[in-house]
Amino acid sequence: MNKRQIDLLKELIIEDGYQAIRHFSHILNVSGKTISKDLDEIEKFIHSSGCKIDRKQGIGVKLNYTSSQLEYLNSLLNSIKVSDSDHDLEQRRIEILLNLLIYTNQYTNIQKLSDKYMVSRTSIVNDLNEIQHQLDKYHLKVSKTLKGTKIIGSEINIRKALVSILQEYVEINPKYITKYQDMRHKELRIGEMKVMLKERSISFFENLLNELEKKLKIVIYEPYYMNLLTHLIIMTGRIINGNYINENSALSETVIIEDHELYNSAIYIIKEIEKQFDIQTNKEESIYIYKYLISVRLGYEGHAKEDNNKSNFVHASFTNSLINIVSQMLGISYHLKISLYDRLILHIKPMLNRLKYHIHIKNPLLKDFLLEFEEQFYITKIACYLVCRKFDMKMIKDDEVAYILSYFISENERNLETMKIKTLVVCHSGYGTSQLLTTRLKNTFPNIDVVNVIPSYSVSNIDLNAIDLIISTVNLDIENPYLMTSVFLNHIDKENIKNCIELIQNNKKTPHFCKEGQLVSIETAEMHKDVEEIQKLFDKKELIYLKEQIYVYVKSDLKDLVKRYTLMQDKLETYIFVIYYSNYQYLSSALRKIIE
Questions:
Q1: How far, CA to CA in Å, does 72 sit from each of 51, 53, 66, 119, 576?
Q2: Contact, 485 vs 473, CB < 8 A?
Q3: How far apart are the first and last CA of the chain?
Q4: Which candidate, 167, 164, 185, 186, places its Cα nearest to that of 176?
Q5: Count H helices, E strands: the chain?
Q6: Fold of 3-79
Q7: Which H, E and C letters describe 317-364, residue by residue?
Q8: Any idea where the PRD domain is (predicted)?
Q9: Which CATH superfamily is domain 311-417 in?
Q10: Residue 205 CB neighbour total at 10 angstroms
Q11: Where are the domains of the chain?
Q12: How far from chain centre, in Å, is Cα 482?
């Protein structure tokens, strides 16, 4: 039974009397016809328990059972595996897509897929249409002929799609790696070649990368390690099956060998694979691996120093521009943090190589970043867009944006650890008692910086806006918030101060987006414009997707203005916000307004 049917059965159990079908239809948000069909399935399921569904026309339905029958029924419910229809649909489509990508030399047909997944032919047709939408970004096509259905396109694009979609599916079904290896073994005809067993197949590539790490004295960090490993497995399988990268392909761009050590490593990998699988490759395959090696963040000191000594202009300029824009948009002086630059540039160089060679990596924490740091994520995304546009580069993916954001968040956390809370201590007048309180504060809270100790009558002479925390042993006649404590700093005082410090740190962690004069109002343009009219206003390629049918288009201007256009597509309203901005503070404020 599926999840809805189980929910319906649970509703029947808790109901004492008869209920109309429309009652359950309303609860489960489905039609009465669907409820009737579900009741038929439930009757089959509960048959062994002895429970009965009593249907009375004009009155409703009721589940009849004894206490022992109910106990048995509950045990059945606890043992059943719930089927989530949405999850099943997504999983089925990815499995079909992966099979089509793996077996590009073979045809399948709609009836075979319908029988395999026990769904209608119409469902499979819808699946294939959705699959085509996913393949569009890889420039691949689902070919449907009298012979059957298969995917056609360039070898490079097939491999890109395989790696990206395989990594996506592993998140849904972690056990698929083993299943995928089984499929690869059948495809590689391991039994005929007597090359290896399944376990050794995986370990060969792992050992190969382990040897590479030792050879170069590096560490290949996640997710790059898994990305590279997956590419090598896919590449090998495709070659054994006769699918080579075309040397004359228009997609095979000229690659300048910048790092000869990594290029030699690519050749080493190719030779080891050729030897292990008794195959021959062309030069394009070595270049293919080299692209991935220079797109991986390599963790060893020599490489970092070499990059710094070279002072690569593009990488340095890109990193500086990004830090500068994020600093202005988030209202935090990141450009003064040298350590942030040093760490970020080590990520930027391989990232730009990935961008150059169309290599995509998956960030398993992307959803967490969107959930926990929504505003910062979208502001960082716009900053990345502006820098990419400045250097005439294609916009980076959200997975990369999340990795970049992690460096800024990490810097915030570092600052919090070393942040001193500027504290003013106010006592009645006695020097001795004030020093006692100050000493106890410093000993108890290392992150407190007591900037001054004054008597209460001198408070009016102090700029309290420059103070983070005011601690006083007496009542004060001031507008600023302050904390009353005893001279001896008892347990309750310590807890109150600790809570205040955490609150101050959280406030400092949260960027001050909206400065005075940065209020944002949104002007609504004509409703439901035609697609062609919208495209005349701005370049469609420059639209930046935010969320839930919301796009933004940003343009530097002398004036600050936000215009909202509403576009109706497929009975859904799509909102396009055009932001004209004269400074980055206004741009970030406008984004916040849109996100809200």
A1: 10, 16, 10, 31, 56
A2: yes
A3: 40
A4: 167
A5: 24, 13
A6: Arc Repressor Mutant, subunit A (1.10.10)
A7: HHHHHHHHHHHHHHCCCHHHCHHHHHHHHHHHHHHHHHHHCCCCCCCC
A8: 196-303, 310-418
A9: PRD domain (1.10.1790.10)
A10: 20
A11: 3-79, 311-417, 419-509, 522-595
A12: 41
Say how many CA atoms lie within 13 Å of 177 toward its Cβ: 12
Q: What whole-number distance in Å separates Cα of residue 333 and Cα of residue 336?
A: 6
DSSP 222: T
Token pair, residue 212, equals 């590479």
Instruction: Mention every residue, 6+ apart, whose C-beta is less than 8 A from residue 429.
Output: 455, 456, 457
Q: What angle do CA 444, 450, 454 make, to 5 degrees?
A: 120
Give residue 188's Cα distance to chain centre: 33
Q: Which of 166-174's residues contact partners 24+ apart within 8 Å by CB, and which partners? A: 166/98, 166/230, 166/234, 167/223, 167/226, 167/227, 167/230, 167/362, 168/94, 168/362, 169/91, 169/94, 169/95, 169/98, 171/362, 171/364, 172/87, 172/90, 172/91, 172/94, 173/91
Joined tokens for residue 462: 């102090």
Dist. CA 357–CA 352, nearest whole Å: 9
What span, in angstroms and rounded, lies between the C-alpha atoms of 359 and 161? 10
- Sheet harboring 483-484: ordered strands across? 448-455, 421-427, 469-472, 483-484
Judge whether 401 and 328 are in contact, CB under 8 Å: no
- d(CA 311, CA 315) in angstroms, rounded, equals 8
419-509, CATH topology level: Rossmann fold (3.40.50)
Q: What share of the chain is helix, strand, coil (3-state, %, to 5)?
A: 60, 15, 30
- Residues 577, 550 contacting (CB under 8 angstroms): yes
How confident is the prediction along the chain (596 residues), in pLDDT tens digits per residue?
Answer: 777 888 899 889 888 899 999 899 888 877 788 888 889 889 988 988 899 999 998 899 999 998 888 888 888 887 765 554 555 787 788 889 988 988 888 899 988 888 777 677 888 998 999 999 989 988 899 999 888 999 998 888 888 888 777 766 655 554 554 454 454 444 433 333 333 334 456 678 888 888 888 888 776 766 677 778 878 888 887 888 777 776 555 444 567 777 888 889 999 999 999 998 888 888 888 888 888 888 876 544 444 444 444 447 889 999 999 999 999 998 888 888 888 998 899 889 889 988 888 888 888 788 888 988 899 999 999 999 999 999 999 999 999 999 999 899 888 877 766 678 999 999 876 566 778 888 889 889 988 999 999 988 888 889 998 899 999 999 998 989 999 998 888 999 999 999 998 888 777 765 544 444 467 878 777 655 555 666 677 777 789 998 888 999 999 999 899 998 888 766 678 888 999 999 999 999 999 999 87
